[in-house]
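Subject: sequence -> structure tokens, single chain

Hey, anyone have a minute? Need the predicted structure for the following. Not urgent.
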Amino acid sequence: MTRTKTRRLAIALLTCGPALLPTPVSADTTGTIGVSLTVTSACAVNGAAAVQSDAGRVAQVAFPDQPGLFGDTDGEAVATGASGALSVLCSPGVTPALTIGAGAHDVGGRRRMAYNGSSVAYRLFADAARTSEIAINQRLTLPVATSAATLVPIYARVNSNGSILAAGTYTDTVQVLLSW
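Reply:
Had a minute. Here:
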């Protein structure tokens, strides 16, 4: 090939070459992304933001101060971190139960508060009239859960029963178990 012909061929390829190449074909492909979440039943106590295996102290009964000899003195459990009754919030449709267990100082099937070797019996109740006593390890079945928390009021009564008690702060710790 002559030099002129080569130059003409190069110019023709540069000018027309792109038009001679195959045109890319455009296409769309669709697909999906699967998204899932399995939710299991759960319960939370006193407005907790998550389920806890150990909720710690969920309520406190603080009887008013008394002299060493006193008659019936009433108290009520106040939820820890709140100003009202213990509350339980569960997945809708769940039937929770709260078992009120033994205290640290129970004697003969009676709950007792203790201080420095002395003790005084007390009782827990499910009603404000204090007629429905909560026995040790009694299971309280709560209503079927909705999207609202269930309040669980617990009432208490103590009496020195004619005995004079040593001055001090008498305490006990009662175990509770929430199941669903």
